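Weekly puzzle thread! Below is a chain. First person to post its structure in token form gets bragging rights.
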Amino acid sequence: MAFMDHCLSQHKRQGWCDLRVIFLCGVVMLCPGLVGAASEGGGLARSFRVQMPYDLPPKAEAGPSVSVPPSNQPLGPEELKRAEALLPLLEGKQEFWAMGEFVHMGAPAVPVLVKALTMPGPRIRYNAIETLLMIKDPSAAAALAEAAKEPNDMPRVREHALRATVRLNPALAPPAIEVMAKDQNTSVRKVAAFEARYVRQKAVVPVLIGLLSDPERFVSISAIHSLWLLTRHESEIHDWDSSSKENRQEWAQEWADWWMSVRDTFELPDPRRPKNPQPQG
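Winning reply:
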């Protein structure tokens, strides 16, 4: 082939071996179709890429899902000792494994995990909250509500503690929401205003009204949205997005006057259901 002759002549003329040339020569000798057949003029014919036939892989056969259900048995002395030894591992390279072990232990491990809410290290406390949320045992809500009220903890930990409280037992959330609504940190107040919409208790309504005049606009907007969702009170339309602090103070007074007139007899309406609920299963 002309290409092979070219390679050999280059090798003789230069007096040294190029590994790339040797590799290409080998490819030509073994797979001449990759570079094309020689044309009548002695040159190389143009090569074309061809899509080879492809068969889809066979579908996997449906089989039963295999999972290990969480334990409902009380922890024995050895298991309790093991659970407490897992607490420091909630921070570090094995944190996800430790969280999985607690989830497998289930509700009996909740008292042990509650101890982590006051341990040093915000990562341990945050992962403990996340693990309690995955276990889904409402008995953890009281300790989570206390963690949300802790003024010296990181905002990220307190916010997550409030979210977990609302999802496990929203009835215990109003005191934590009230404390967080007065916090100096903007993000803490905003989470309090947002999560209050999922707490269907009249106790959160005056707290939300107090946040309407918040100096941070996004806190105020979260509060008004939560009030609309909870009460469905058709207040006068105001432009909350572009409002000033003075505007929000004036509008907050309108809500406060309305609440004073109806709070003794007012009942929170049932939450609205989606118009097109997704089919289950």
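Puzzle host: Confirmed. Bonus trivia for everyone else. Confidence is low (pLDDT under 50) at residues 34-39.
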